[in-house]
Amino acid sequence: MTTATGTETMAMAAPAAKKPSKSLWQHAFSTIVKDKLALIALITVGFYFLLAILTFLGVIASDWGLEVGPSYAAPSAEYIFGTDIFGRSVFLKMIKGAETAVAIGLATSFISLIIGTSLGALAGYFGGLVDELIVWFYTTFSSIPFIMLLVAIAFIMGKGTSTVFISLGVTSWVGLCRIVRGEVMKHKEREYSQAASALGAGHMRKIFKHILPNISHVLIINFSLTFESAIKSEVILSYLGLGVQGRPSWGTMIDDSKLELARGVWWQLGAATLAMFIIVLAFNILGDALRDALDPKLKGK
Amino acid sequence: MNLYSYILRRLLYVVPVLLGVCFIIFIIFNVVAPDPAFILLGKHATLEQIAQLHKELGIDRPFWEQYFQIVKSAFTFDFGYSWSSKQQIWEMIKVGVGPSLSITFPLFIIVNILSISIALLVSFYRGKLIDKAVLLLSIGMMSISSLAYILFGQWFFAYTLGWFEISGYEAGFPNFIPYVILPVILYVAISWGPDTRFYRSVILDEVYQDYVRTARAKGLGELSIMFKHVLKNAMVPILTYVIIQIPFLILGLLLAEAFFSIPGLGGITIKAINTSDFPVIKAMTILSAVGFIIFGVITDVLYTVVDPRMRLK
Known about the structure:
The structure holds two protein chains of two kinds. Chain A is mainly alpha-helical. Chain A has helices at residues 2-17, 24-34, 36-56, 90-126, 128-143, 146-157, 161-170, 174-188, 191-198, 203-214, 216-239, 250-260, 267-294.
């Protein structure tokens, strides 16, 4: 792995230059910047976020719904990715889809972050009956296969964009909860945590001011994982007719293409898959790089 | 704690988990879900018709009785009748298992052998070019939606090139083979990436252990360290990961079965979702959860047989 070698040179270079020691985040940032692949991934993710913000503000791709040419025009100089059945530009739909994808990724990751962190921290910190109850709850929850639970929740909530957010969010917190629980358990026994108690810190202060900041790397890594898997799961929801309504998303574009392929119309599938491939790949690479950069066990190895 | 009391305790824990699963299903389908009368009778139903239907479906009974009904079905597999086909659901499931297995079983064997072999290879050459190339390829292939694989594969390899059957199914051993080749290939392409990455990380966890250094210090060759020491220890998490896949074999593949018209359980589930067939969706959810719980117990027990330290927890 490229980042591991980056870390090695860092660790060797640091004492020689007699620099002041770096914090975890400074260290992680410099590791990622030095790793070219991770840096490209970071820039790509930033580019997609920029696209999403610009389309959200209506600066670009706001006219995606306009008819720009004949139905199913093949890709050409005039229509970069061709047109769809209504003669709309597939390229503009793809750009507008970035906004949908980023919205889904953010909403899902936030929901799962809030549920997973709070339940995991409670279970790990208080232990005993609270722990037993929360462990029982997530064991139960994760016993139902992800796809069935997702479908069941999306199904009863009915169609709509908020359905996509909520159904993806409430089905993707278990992994994070499990990790946070374990980490909090370890950290509450550490000296700094005991010192905080000795100084009279209450439970909430210890959890939020002392323990959670120390395990924030877990949250960040998980955020990037949830983000990309939410974008991928949205395709399945769209296929089942439970996806976002009234605006283009990569999932609905891929789903639409199932009727178009037999007529040789491949560009809608191609454009959506390409757009999705790039951001999911970037998140995957970034997630790996973050894990290498932020995992204290690997630091300086 | 000895082995038997551990197994007993682990078995007893199944009860609250199963009750919890049934509770979640009950909340979703019996409390939150819209009134099935809208789906079955349409907008113009009279009040008597609606009352009659509620009585037939048993949803006029008190909540605890409805909940008990769900718990009972998890044990008796009596899921009632499908709304759209009017068939008994358990009969539909029995018919669907065969076709599902004909595609998931070869897939399970191929993917696991392939990804464990690749994982061994790349962890032997860890940090070298081949390791990086395989990692990048796996991340790249994981970044494409499974639906895109199926759509592209079916269109390009079956429709355009005509190499495979586009869709359809024939029961019986040699007859089904031409219909399952393409879905199996596509799913190997979809799932080798995550599996290989998992096996690789499990093997690499072992590679940096002290006993490996000891083995190296006493002069053992890298190859014999890999197979006699590392693989032996990595086998525990690898087996766990393999066993927990088994219940999903029976459930089939949702998307592939729908696209290739394979009459398995995955296809049945997709059809049920499209036609709002509550009892079938409910039955499939319960069935998959029960399978998952049972195989979870099996893995945990096997784990403790292999690694007695686990019992202490």
